[in-house]
Amino acid sequence: MNTSPDRPLKAAIIPVTPLQQNCTLLWCTKTMKGAFVDAGGDIDRLKAAAAQHGVAIEKLLVTHGHIDHCGFTGVLAQELGVPIEGPHEDDRFWIEQLDSAGAKYGLEGHSFEPDRWLKDGDQVTVGALVFDVVHCPGHTPGHVVFHHPESNLALVGDVLFQGSIGRTDFPRGNHAQLLESITGKLWPLGGDTAFVPGHGPMSTFAHERRGNAFVADAVLARGGGIHGPTSGPG
Ligand SMILES: [Zn+2]
Ligand SMILES: [Zn+2]
Description:
Elements: E1 9-16, E2 21-28, E3 33-37, H1 43-53, E4 56-61, H2 67-70, H3 73-80, E5 84-85, H4 92-96, H5 98-105, E6 123-126, E7 129-135, E8 144-148, E9 153-157, E10 160-161, E11 164-165, H6 175-186, E12 194-197, E13 203-204, H7 205-211, H8 217-221
Parallel strand pairs: 3-4, 4-5, 9-12
Antiparallel strand pairs: 1-2, 2-3, 6-7, 7-8, 8-9, 10-11, 12-13
This protein binds zinc ion (2 copies).
């Protein structure tokens, strides 16, 4: 993805935690400043990846408050001395539970207070890059997506996966709201938009509109009827 030398944005996906969550190292090739999106764990590997690519981390971005996505974001922010931006404040209750959630999911997590809560229509910068913030509730109420229009790239966390969608059986999950987020907020970004999901391989919105078992156009035209997955990556 976006690896040709003239591209303003480069990205490397680093799966972290036993849940193989796709932490993404994003950087601006003009300034070589970068950010991690969803630093959920394995922070020594994350720091090594930034060093390997010669990227100076200037902030940490968070899509939502689940432990595999942000269990170590607070620790890493403190170590690097950088701010945390995201998610939307409606995920505060998830972030407040990170210490205790660790025991429940067999993962280690640490609560933190973001330096900036995000809302729909906000923008975040990484070096000279500007990302649009899209609030996409449903999997969690405060889930946000980061979209870089110039690169046709979106980081969608656990909203959408190749072939599937996020679980909505957690507290304050909402299946109808998740479908509305996907069809009403992601599809309008354009079918050729490539996305990094929270787990598993990349895909494009057009590919999902053709074949996704939950949100393909043909599935929704039949009235949906399939409830979302109740297990799988959190
Ligand atoms: Zn999640
Ligand atoms: Zn996840």
